[in-house]
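User: Show me a protein chain along with its predicted structure.
Assistant: Here is one chain, sequence first, then structure tokens.
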Amino acid sequence: MKACNLCPRSCGVSREEGQRGFCGESGVIRAARAALHMWEEPCISGTRGSGTVFFCGCTLRCVYCQNRSIADGEVGKEISTNRLAEIMLEQQERGANNINLVTPTHFVPQIAKAISAARANGLALPIVYNTSAYETPETLKILDGLVDVYLPDMKYFSPVLAAKYSNAPDYPETAKAAIAEMVRQTGTACFADGNGIAEEGIMLRGVIVRHLLLPDGLEDSKAVVRYLYETYGDGVYISIMNQYTPMPGIGDKYPELARKVTDEEYDELVDYAVSLGIENGFIQEGETALESFIPDFDMRGI
């Protein structure tokens, strides 16, 4: 981190000396919440909840971000690597099914040390790495053998959309390479049988790729789903989400994003996935688009 290149931005700043690059964070971990989370895929949350740790800062910063208060660093608390290890053990004591590290990329060296320390002190839960997939394979290799489940997004297939909404025209190719490395590390998915520390049906190893349908984004979404299935078949699970929520003021600059996706748009994407032959996947049903998936970033558990 003396010349940080942990993410594809490769800012080169000395975060060890307190400098901040695109992610907005120095070399000291900052987090905003550590608590049981019920809103992930069923094989992540289960009935007991996922032991999430929400980190501050972000290497992508999408214009429609729902977690902007922590992505921009407005809220958060500094913690040590040892404290992060303690938080993981506390989540285990709460009955969590896993340790779920949310937006972790820019703190990977510290996270790797914390996982090792927590495991040395009795952590037995699977580690979930919850990411935008704007990652380098080199950074992900630091986590080889430490992370059990990867939970990346694949946000765009079009570099034009990636540039417009995330200031990252290289996102599609970068995410492809990152997901390939994740699949290499985890291999075939496996699930708990209920006889271990996690409840039955919880993913113990594997990759779930999330894709959020955006308004007017149906054709790009179809391209994402098609790419994932043609590349990995049922070797990865695909989670197709309809929960896009327009944040205040988004329509001023991006009028197309000032609405939720329609039932017709989402149903067409799901039907397309089914027509491809996808079997290992998740969809959102009912009123999920009307729910709030934004937790309170109140330093709970930090």
